[in-house]
Amino acid sequence: MNASRPTSRQAAIDWRDVERRLETARSAIERACAPSAEETKRVLRERAQVLAREPAQAEADGEHIEVVEFRLAHERYGVESRYVREVYPLENLTPLPCTPVFVLGIVNVRGEILSVIDIKKFFGLPEKGLTDLNKIIVLRSENMLFGILADAVAGVRRVPLSGIQPSLPTLTGIRAEYLKGVTPERTVILDAEKLLTDEKIVVQEQVSA
Questions:
Q1: pLDDT tens for residues 111-132?
Q2: Which CATH fold topology does 64-197 show?
Q3: Which partner from 39, 40, 55, 146 sits 20 to 30 angstroms from 75, CA to CA?
Q4: CA-based nearest residue to 131, from 85, 78, 89
Q5: What is d(CA 23, CA 26) in angstroms, rounded to the nearest whole number?
Q6: For residues 106 and 27, what is the distance between their CA atoms, to the nearest angstrom?
Q7: Dist. CA 21–CA 28, nearest whole Å
Q8: How many Å apart are CA 181 and CA 183, to the nearest integer?
Q9: Chain-wide mean pLDDT for the chain?
Q10: pLDDT digits over 131-141, tens only?
Q11: If you average pLDDT over residues 191-204, what whole number do you get?
Q12: Which tops the pLDDT comparison, 165 or 176?
């Protein structure tokens, strides 16, 4: 029997063509599995929005007040810096007779006579003798100016409004009337505006130097 030979109807296999078709098929499969450029942009945009949500919320929640922090009777207090004109050393204090017990006296600060309020006595806190560390925090509003006594001034810091609690159970009595809130670190934020408008607190008179 004669061995069969390819006839004119049987063409030789074109391996290059087969390889080209396989490559075309593989590319089609990869394109089907991989997202398009538009789809990739959409996914990245959505991811960016999700990632931005938290910082945006944090920024919204990050509204803050700036406070001058000080110590009174081993407790931390603060007043908003926008009500503080300056911090001044306690010098040349002149006691005043016939004044409420919480009026420590008056001082002359660059030609202005300021009443100095000992808010430890005003709030009924434990008293402490005067030292070289004592400072006067000069509070101001449009119509009033006076100083409050601090055992020591810690500095200025920013306090997030979202972290201020209304009050604490231990903060009762007259202190509670002048509270703006309490921070998580137990810094008591005083309501300086209320202190400056309270008729019970004696304010200064101004004199020439």
A1: 889 999 988 888 787 777 676 6
A2: OB fold (Dihydrolipoamide Acetyltransferase, E2P) (2.40.50)
A3: 146
A4: 89
A5: 5
A6: 89
A7: 10
A8: 7
A9: 76
A10: 667 899 999 98
A11: 77
A12: 165
pTM recorded for the entire structure: 0.63
Q: Token pair for residue 46? A: 């959505």
d(CA 79, CA 145): 14
Nearest partner of 76 among 152, 132, 179, judged by Cα: 152
Which residue type sits at 102?
A: F
* Distance from C-alpha of 70 to C-alpha of 101, rounded to nearest angstrom: 22
Instruction: List the domain boundaries for the chain.
Output: 15-61, 64-197
Residue 107, both tokens: 């001082």
Tokens of 1: 């029997």
pLDDT of residue 170: 56
CA dihedral angle for residue 8, residue 12, residue 17, residue 19, rounded to 10 degrees: 160
Q: What letter represents residue 117's amino acid?
A: I
